[in-house]
Design brief:
By secondary structure, the chain is α/β, with parallel strands linked by helices. It folds into 2 domains: about 90 residues; about 260 residues, 3-Layer(aba) Sandwich (Rossmann fold). The protein is built from 12 helices and 11 strands. It has a 6-stranded parallel β-sheet, with helices on both faces. It has a 3-stranded parallel β-sheet with strand order 2-1-3, covered by helices on one side. Strand 8, helix 8 and strand 9 form a beta-alpha-beta unit. Helix 5 runs parallel beside helix 10. The radius of gyration is 21 Å and the shape is globular. The termini are far apart. The C terminus is likely disordered.
Length: about 375
């Protein structure tokens, strides 16, 4: 009888952006759950914070003898408009084919692991407020290479203003990206490492953003025991990417697929609204139906040009989607006392030292209870 087979030692390599790497965590989990003991797996990505505490990651280096380096790609994306697959299928399918194993996604989210001690730490908001103050994370912009993913920062401001005194929004975003400053929020742009962003997501009431890494974190980060269920997340998506490719269970994914000639058969996958003339190939992939926003945010680098698919999504639609979690009863608005405390920590932040562009300098880019539930305006938004 043959003895036990030594596990195959591999390194999964992927130098794409944060959202892609979060999706890759699902494939690593599926590989080890489907093939227990058959692989020792190291990872080579630009975001080591994503893999902390992950039980499926081994100290395997690409330089070790007998190690196979597997370049993780997602060719399935070319079928995203026509085939019934989500993004988490892409790396998993490619991995299964390359390693000649049978694996498929069994969990509809990535795999971010927080250690026991890490889960016991208070959030950054707790540190600032001295208590566990409920909050939502918000992203107002995005990366320079895919400006079509950005909604209107001016409309994000309308959403924030609408929920003033009821929701504490915490604005996050990387320093070297475009994240127009919002008023009336706790501004943590550029102040979080990837791991700190993971912990913020863990403690958050919910998330609202475009199609970006934060929506993947919203699904991949586990839930505190006192907040079971699916983490609320409202995604402003437009018509760039097909809904079935990106949307996670429990998310409100606001899209316009099928409503415009350019996305009649699925996402257009165009990159930018206006050319940036920065030498990137994305300048040759411009929106076919840009519109001019009458009152753009002064810090929006697109010169007021907005994809029509994004322009079709109103701030009231976004507010209604956020409000649905409160009307449905899975989340509660701030109490009067909490609202006052939230305003204090926002006001206290004025004069906070920052870089020249208004965002403190941390970069984690890859180098390649319901005090006004009967508020008439809330009912108006949800009915619109």
């Amino acid at each position: 009888m043959d003895g036990p087979t030594e596990p195959r030692r591999i390194v999964l390599r992927n130098h794409l952006s944060l959202g892609d790497v979060i999706t890759l965590t699902a494939s690593l989990r599926e590989l080890h759950e489907a093939c227990p003991g058959r692989f020792e797996t190291g990872v080579d990505t630009c975001f080591p914070d994503v893999w902390e505490n992950n039980p499926f990651v081994s100290p395997v280096s690409a330089d070790d003898p007998g190690v196979t380096v597997f370049q993780c790609d997602c060719p399935l994306i070319h079928e995203s408009n026509t085939a019934p697959y989500h993004y988490i299928h892409a790396f998993t399918q490619h991995l299964a084919q390359g390693l000649d194993v049978h694996i498929k996604p069994r969990h509809f989210h990535g795999h971010i692991v927080l250690g026991e001690e890490e889960r016991s730490w208070g959030s950054r908001i707790w540190e600032l407020a001295g208590t566990d103050l409920p909050f939502w994370l918000i992203v107002s912009g995005g990366k320079h290479d895919f400006t079509n993913k950005w909604w209107s920062a001016a409309r994000w401001q309308r959403v924030v203003d609408y929920f003033k005194g009821r929701i504490l929004f915490v604005q996050v975003g990387e320093k070297d990206h475009c994240h127009p400053a919002l008023k009336g929020v706790l501004d943590l742009r550029g102040e979080t490492s990837v791991r700190q962003l993971i912990r913020l997501t863990y403690h958050s009431q919910g998330v609202t953003c475009g199609v970006t890494s934060l929506m993947h974190l919203a699904a991949a980060v586990p839930f505190p025991p006192e907040k079971p269920g699916l983490r609320p997340c409202v995604v402003v998506a437009g018509g760039r990417e097909p809904a079935h490719w990106e949307e996670y269970p429990g998310h409100q994914y606001l899209h316009t697929i099928g409503a415009l000639p350019c996305c009649t058969h699925g996402g257009c996958w165009k990159s930018r609204t206006v050319a940036r003339h920065d030498g990137c190939e994305q300048d040759s992939s411009l929106c076919e139906h840009p519109v001019h926003e009458s009152t753009p945010h002064p810090d929006d680098e697109r010169q007021g040009s907005l994809p029509k698919c994004m322009d079709m999504i109103s701030w009231r639609q976004v507010a209604s989607a956020i409000g649905s979690y409160f009307v449905g009863g899975v989340r509660s608005f701030l109490s009067l006392e909490q609202a006052e405390l939230a305003q204090k920590i926002i006001s206290r932040q004025k004069g906070h030292p920052a870089s020249a562009d208004g965002a403190p300098c941390i970069n984690h880019e890859c180098p390649t209870q319901k005090h006004d539930a009967g508020h008439p305006k809330q009912a108006e938004v949800l009915a619109s």
